[in-house]
Amino acid sequence: MNKITAAITAVGAYVPDFVLSNKVLETMVDTNDEWITTRTGIKERRILKDKNKGTSYLAIQAAEDLLKKSGTNPADIDMVLLATTTPDMPVAATAVYVATQIGAVNAFAYDLQAACSSFLYGMSTAAAYIQSGRYKKILLIGADKMSSIIDYTDRATCIIFGDGAGAALFEPNHEGLGLQDEILRSDGIGREFLKIEAGGSLLPPSHETVDNKQHYVFQDGKTVFKYAVSNMADISEKIMLRNNLTNEDVDWLVSHQANKRIIDATSSRMNLDESKVLVNIEKYGNTTSATLPLLLNDFEHLFKKGDNLIFASFGGGFTWGSIYLKWAYDKK
Ligand code: UT7
Fold first, then answer.
1. 79 backbone dihedrals φ, ψ, rounded to 5°
2. All structural domains of the chain
3. Helix, strand or coil for residue 61?
4. Would the CB of 180 count as within 6 Å of ligand 1?
5. What's 248's DSSP letter?
6. Residue minimizing CA distance to atom 12 of ligand 1
7. How do residues 268-303 score in pLDDT, each as one tens digit?
8. Cα–Cα distance between 316 and 301 in angstroms, integer?
9. Which residue, 89, 175, 226, 316, has most beta carbons within 10 Å?
10. pTM
11. CA dihedral 141, 146, 147, 149 (to 10 degrees)
């Protein structure tokens, strides 16, 4: 087969050691383990405690895990794409620093921001570059230090998010494996319901914005939940129909981990057996750009060459989408 497809050929991940459990959150805000577990499926999340370390630290660890496991020479990487909502600094791009630190000396690098869909959109970008024949090795990293933008006195958000990072290497494939199809969407209506109000060009930082806690994530959870459930389920069903995939054909659902009830609604619309639905939200919470690659890393041992994976995400903006990908290797 002469057509070039874009396959994932290696994955890696990193989560910080510190565990913030539901029990500990009970001592911080008015919440309880039972509420968090039944409403979200989360039991604990990881937090990067070191105040001197930002998202780049998480991203570098995940990238180095991938490089080590796959034996990839970083000098061979053409491009480093960092999907993140929590860059180290507004300027310069965190990806550039990460690329240099891991030794990707021949790569160009930039950040991609689309809230919880950042990694999914990044998969599309990486695949397009590979399919065009322009580049041969693209390292896509999803990393977020969500604890840096969360108000730990706000029970509506602090129970949900965690820190983490994952990475995937995209390379050309000539057997028809890798990314098969995608449906990506966005709708600016979402900007009011999930946002950090201040710190950008619209409302630059000031004493007032700090006093008003406008640098933290605000989420109207109920509204976001409704949009997430209907859009993620719709788009996942749509990509199956468009590719003539039955529930038997789909081997794994790799879904954004925001709420176990959203994942259940999506898999139920796809009529998928529970055993095909990858879930690790109980361990990490919502790690934003890192949820999809953390799933790939945690469940890599189950994937077989040729397996059909459906990716799905929904995030702030709103941004959402679904990707159909054929897995390209058996884990050694
Ligand atoms: O990843 C990016 C996209 N984000 C998402 O997809 C997140 C979507 N939203 C959600 O996952 C859910 O809306 C949440 C988990 C954020 C909230 O769950 P919910 O079932 O929508 O709860 P709710 O906001 O409707 O609140 C239900 C009740 C309220 O009490 P009353 O008014 O019924 O007495 C809340 O005050 O639960 C209360 N509540 C809490 N209770 C204990 C809200 N947060 C908490 C809490 N602990 N942490």
1. -155, 140
2. 5-176 (3.40.47.10), 179-326 (3.40.47.10)
3. helix
4. no
5. T
6. 221
7. 999 999 999 999 999 999 999 999 999 999 999 999
8. 31
9. 316
10. 0.97
11. 130
